[in-house]
Design brief:
With 335 residues, the chain is mostly helical. It contains 15 helices and no strands.
Length: 335
């Protein structure tokens, strides 16, 4: 197992080198100039030349790539041209918001998707199964920007039940910074009222973001459980007179978990990249909206370094999923 993990970690090196090569070529194909975006109407030929020289943008692409990779080896991911702040500091400041939103969305998707998928599989061909299938198709088909606006209008504007913007009420807690607000509100500030306020702000964006993973999980769970229900060992367990709950837990769900965990891992890795539309609709200051603004402002270093970090996280999440297979199914061994 340890050798397998070590090999997978070593594979990160060529993967990230390939991603960095694609990124450096992609960002230079984008229209616009970072210095022109930064200087705005005050841009002159001399100021543009000075700016481009200070950020190394006047060098050949290969030289920029070599300098960038050399900085990465020393832990330097560059400086944002739009904010003049280190890229790594900005990422660290925004990433907790994305983590909280991702895990809340996946908690909703997994908590509702697996029971719905199991219930649909055990009632295959029934009206419930048909309704679950239709709802899963709708969940995949509905554009997330439409669903987000609909939820914001329904529960925020019309019913006034939930807030529709931000991570916390800044009028009540003006001195609270970023970070993991759910954790900080209970462990650092010891304020249950703050925790409840953070949860209220989290509900709507988590529901909007978790709808698509929910739909995938329902469909994969249904098909995987249906396949296991028809296996010989399940029929043998029933013939032995085992309780249905024990059959479901030990024989059905455990053997059906591998494809389900795969989908959960992939969706978690994707959501860790930041949900641009969801974060924009609900003014959620996470990585997604940060990268979107970087594209708008032609902020090359933010695009390159931010995407590279997210690619690393995605690969690591997939490694965790692959390793979990050996614990879920004893027949799977890594040599």
């Amino acid at each position: 197992m340890l050798k397998y993990i070590a090999r997978r970690l070593l594979m990160l090196i060529p993967i990230l080198l390939g991603v960095s090569l694609v990124l450096i070529g992609f960002v230079h194909l984008l229209p616009g100039d970072p210095c022109a975006s930064m200087l705005g109407e005050h841009a002159t030929v001399e100021k543009l030349a000075t700016c481009r020289h200070s950020y190394g943008l006047d060098l050949p692409i290969w030289q920029q790539y070599v300098d960038y990779m050399g900085g990465l080896l020393h832990g330097d991911m560059g400086v944002s041209t739009s904010t003049r702040l280190p890229v790594l500091d900005q990422f660290v400041a925004r990433f907790p918001a994305t983590v909280e939103l991702t895990f809340a969305a996946m908690l909703f998707a997994v908590g509702a998707g697996i029971p719905l998928g199991i219930a649909a599989a055990k009632r295959a061909g029934s009206a419930f199964d048909t309704a679950a299938t239709i709802l899963s198709l709708l969940g995949i088909s509905i554009p997330i920007f439409f669903l987000g606006l609909l939820l914001a209008y329904l529960f925020g504007v019309w019913l006034h039940w939930l807030p529709t913007a931000g991570r916390i009420d800044l009028h009540l807690y003006p001195d609270v910074g970023g970070g993991f607000l759910l954790f900080n509100s209970l462990v650092i500030y010891h304020d249950p009222a703050m925790f409840i306020d953070v949860v209220k702000h989290l509900i709507l964006p988590a529901l909007a973001l978790g709808t698509i993973p929910l739909a995938y999980i329902v469909r994969i769970t249904r098909s995987s459980v249906l396949e296991v229900l028809n296996e010989d060992y399940v029929r043998t367990a029933r013939a032995k007179g085992l309780q249905q709950r024990r059959i479901d837990n030990r024989h059905v769900l455990r053997n059906a978990l591998v494809p389900i965990v795969t989908v959960i891992g992939l969706q978690t890795g994707l959501l860790m990249g930041g949900a641009v539309l969801t974060e924009t609709i609900f003014s959620w200051g996470g990585v997604g909206s940060w990268l979107f603004q970087a594209v708008v402002n032609n902020d090359f270093r933010v695009i390159e370094s931010g995407t590279l970090i997210l690619a690393t996280i995605f690969v690591l999440v997939n490694l965790v999923v692959d390793v979990s297979y050996a614990f879920l199914n004893p027949r799977i061994r890594y040599s």
